[in-house]
From TrEMBL:
Matching InterPro entries: NAD(P)-bd_dom, NAD(P)-bd_dom_sf
Domain NAD(P)-binding per the UniProt entry, residue ranges: 82-228
SUPFAM superfamilies: Helical backbone' metal receptor, NAD(P)-binding Rossmann-fold domains
UniProt GO MF annotations: metal ion binding
The protein's name in its UniProt record: NAD(P)-binding domain-containing protein
GO biological process, one term: metal ion transport
Pfam families in alphabetical order: GDP_Man_Dehyd
Amino acid sequence: TIPDFPHDLLDLILHLVLSHHGEYEYGSPRLPVTVEAMADDYIDNLDAFFADVDATDRKVRKALAPVSGQTFFVFHPSFGYFAEAYGLKVLTTRMFTHTGPRRGDVFAESSFAKQIAMIEAKQIEPPLKVGNLESVRTIADVRDAVRAYHMLLTVNPQVGAVYNIGGTHTCTIGQVLDTLFEVAGQRYEVEVDPARLRPIDADHQVPDCSKFMDHTGWKPEIPFEQTMVDLLEYWREKVKRTRPLQR
């Protein structure tokens, strides 16, 4: 022991020792409450974080080593940094609204088609639940979108290029619903469901896809109306084959 060692300082040192793991679940009998103890905990956490980052980096490098130098495509320019760090080549796209058979029901047009099919099958009663019907979208068929992705990688791919890809049919979400009603041959009452309204909605999404079209020769081939026919038929068949679905 050190004679006449200040008790206050001793308490601080003991607290540092007892609380340096930071959390009870990490084996610390005390939580840090002093500035010094908190700083010690933050330093430990930072060291652990960097160790995790280094371990992840080694794992990613090992996994990507067999494909070093190859090209892949992504949906955000930020992946350019990833490609540069790991010796890859990147093409970047922004694919705008695309839909068709098998589209998930979290998306407006597929939710509409699903509800229409469920009403037809007498699984639910109207009204049909909707969100913001005034949003504007340019819509492509998912099968045209897949063909676009294939052409992106096979028609003289330009490493580092960035493209918008989207359809040529622009309409409001309400007009999408109108088209589905026309396909169904029946209109139903609708009701705005607050849960389907986004707090922030990018409500006007109309792309300029001329750069991609000029480079690849791609253009949409499946008419919007056919997409809606196929989407509704998909949900009609799915409703028939499965036990009652949730709206």
